[in-house]
Amino acid sequence: MCEVDVCVVGLGYIGLPTSLVLATNGSKVHGVDVADSVTSRLQAGLATFEEPGLQDALDAAIGTDNLTVSDRTVPASTYIIAVPTPIGSDKSPDTSYIQAAAVQIAGHIQPGGLVILESTSPVGTTEFVAKTIYSLRPDLDSGDLAFAHCPERVIPGSMLREITVNDRIVGGLNPQDAARAATLYRTFCTGEVHLTDARTAEITKLAENSFRDVNIAFANELSMVAEGLGIDPWEVISLANKHPRVNILQPGPGVGGHCIAVDPWFLISSAPNETKLIKAARIVNDFKPSFVSEKIKRELESSDGTSVAILGLAFKANVDDLRGSPSVEIVEELASSRPDLLIRVVEPFITDLPSNFRQYSNIRLDSLEACLENEELIVLLVDHDLFKKVDMSLLATKRIIDTRGMWRELNV
């Protein structure tokens, strides 16, 4: 009998909240992460990233004595894989972290064990995990273990709530595996749990984020067309949305994060000849940061500007998550192409600039107050609540590039 009910491999943006919810709902949980910076902070009782309610949830989990953390996988009844699934420079899926997690699990899992893959993955990855573990454990027979895919469906800023209230999809390698995994999720999930096969679960998650990416791409492309014609894109979208069957999204500086900007490539890699629309959307959204960068450069050249204030680095509002952020890409492009340009960045959710900025001497993390006082050109890239509260009179004499349409709505 294992002392640990659930061993969660990967304590990042999905693995940590999942561990906390499981622990506070009665499961004995052991969390594993290879990063010393993560395990040491959690062992000290400190949350590793900014998320509403996360520190309170960590305190509650610690209070139950149901949570332990280390850098080593341990014997458990159930394993949840929640590691990154990035894409390479050629946009191909990188499942090496999943493979490494499977190898770790293989050394400890016993007959009757359950492995759940939560990481968003290319179609067929759950089967790959099963094959990897069985290949390393010749003492196990096919069917001794259960495997399922249960993709996360949360958004930064509301993770702890959405982990519990959103419907979940559980896809097993067979119906019995799906049923076993569903039993675990029903211990904390108040949303409906839908059972299917693993491949259907995998492609469903990819379809969800590809759908969102395509819709965002339409808004971004429309905004570029409108601006090129000298037309306010936000007015166009507002008026078009008066149609009862039209709901165009709001444009932005691009698409970031680890999901929407990544997951469509998993579908594209699986069926390159059948995903022309999905690929076109990715190209549009990947191009938008360059479009914004060129717009900033033109504005600087028109006034011989030598400095600029950039408001926001996160990939979305009110989080500290910089993964895949178009804002980061824009700042890097400006810094490398204009080494003479002083770039003052305001990001209220971080205390230090990301490490990839260290090669540039012309990027400075600054306060909103200093930038509004000293800079002539203000570029809004992220619609943080802090920026919504700016005194509009302070912007009256500024030149503004608002990629979110936020200040336009405030009659700036």
UniProtKB/TrEMBL annotation:
Protein EC: 1.1.1.336
Gene Ontology terms, MF aspect: UDP-N-acetyl-D-mannosamine dehydrogenase activity
Domain named UDP-glucose/GDP-mannose dehydrogenase C-terminal: residues: 309-409
SUPFAM superfamilies recorded: 6-phosphogluconate dehydrogenase C-terminal domain-like (SSF48179), NAD(P)-binding Rossmann-fold domains (SSF51735), UDP-glucose/GDP-mannose dehydrogenase C-terminal domain (SSF52413)
Keywords assigned: NAD, Oxidoreductase
SMART domains from the UniProt entry: UDPG_MGDP_dh_C
Protein name per the record: UDP-N-acetyl-D-mannosaminuronic acid dehydrogenase
Gene source species: Paeniglutamicibacter psychrophenolicus
